[in-house]
Design brief:
This protein starts with a helix and ends with a helix. It is mostly helical. 0% of the residues are buried. It is 57% helix and 0% strand. The protein has 2 helices and no strands.
């Protein structure tokens, strides 16, 4: 899981919490999901070009 977290951080999809922590076992809110979803879709679309 750590490698996946590093990938999405380097891709700019997630950045963690203000204290620079990640909480992988915490439930993601709808707002948090939307914030992660938008850059993910943009990254996919860019890779298709």
């Amino acid at each position: 899981m750590e490698a996946t977290i590093k990938q999405v951080v380097s891709a700019g999809i997630v950045s963690g919490y203000p204290d620079s922590s990640f909480k992988p076992n915490r439930t993601v809110t709808r707002v948090e999901f939307a914030v992660m979803w938008a850059p993910s879709i943009l990254a996919i679309l860019k890779s298709l070009k």
